[in-house]
Amino acid sequence: MSLTLAEVEHIAALARLELTPEEKERFRAQLSAILDYADRLQAVETSDIPPTSSVLPPHSALRPDEPRPGLSLGEALTNAPLTEDDQFRVPPVLE
């Protein structure tokens, strides 16, 4: 599918791009090649292939979610600039 310069100018306007005449011609050729390749992909027979979200087998790179002890109160408040009654003290944000 070959794009016209008018179509490239329309696409550039949608993307808010200012293109030189050389860029318009280069992008016309490149976008036309991309659309031609997409047409070739449409011709591939895929009716016997089940839908998949990935070609890789299911695998989780995350560790199992197991409960573990957290920080103690003292450890959590160690680097706090201000504390009050074993809580973080923050300046008010409303006046």
What attributes characterize this protein structure?
95 residues, mainly alpha, Histone, subunit A, two-stranded antiparallel ribbon, 39% helix, 4% strand
Give a structural overview:
- With 95 residues, this protein is mostly helical.
- It has a domain at 5-42: Histone, subunit A (Orthogonal Bundle), CATH 1.10.20.
- It contains three helices and two strands, in the order H-H-H-E-E.
- It has a two-stranded antiparallel ribbon.
- 2% of the residues are buried.
- The mean pLDDT is 91.
Describe the secondary structure blueprint for this structure.
Elements: H1 5-14, H2 21-42, H3 73-77, E1 83-84, E2 87-88
Antiparallel strand pairs: 1-2
Helix pairs in contact: 1-2
Mean pLDDT: 91
Q: Kindly report the spatial arrangement of strands forming the biggest sheet.
A: 1-2
Q: Compute the number of strand runs.
A: 2
Question: Which secondary-structure class do the elements indicate?
Answer: mainly alpha
Q: Work out the helix count.
A: 3
CATH-defined topology of the domain at 5-42? Histone, subunit A
CATH-assigned homologous superfamily of the domain at 5-42:
Glu-tRNAGln amidotransferase C subunit, N-terminal domain
Biggest sheet: strands, sense, closure?
2 strands, antiparallel
Helical content stands at: 25-40%
Instruction: Give the uncertain stretches in residue-range form.
Output: none
Question: Radius of gyration over alpha carbons?
Answer: 29 Å
CATH C-level class of the domain at 5-42 is: Mainly Alpha
CATH architecture label name of the domain at 5-42 = Orthogonal Bundle
Shape: elongated
Q: End-to-end span in angstroms?
A: 63 Å
